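U., I forgot to send this yesterday:
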Amino acid sequence: MIKIIAGEKGTGKTAKLVEDINSVAAQDNNIVCIERGDRLDQLLKPNVRLVNMKEYPVSGYEQLLAFIAGICSKDYDLTHIYIDSIRKVSGNDDLTGLDTFVKKLDAFLKDTPITATIIVSDKKEALDPDVQAFC
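Result:
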């Protein structure tokens, strides 16, 4: 399952993400949070596995999808994946290709217990209708 949190900069998306992660982390230890940088480092519970994309040679949605598949193949108990700011994490300045990424990620996660939550810094109305369906 995929959930998308969309909104313009400054609308509280990251605060909502942190609240959701910490709520899930209070009961579950199989959580991965993907971000670019380490701004969430001090905000999340210590049992959340943080992945700093600056440390990996990933660019574009296709490579990000492969990276996520690699994470899932290593951790069979994974229940939640959080992506803070999909533009920064994927290295794409625009949202071109996000619809294809979301469809492929949804198909990949279809038969798994994994929930992916993605932050998109843009108005919900500006997103592709296929992406809006996950908001």
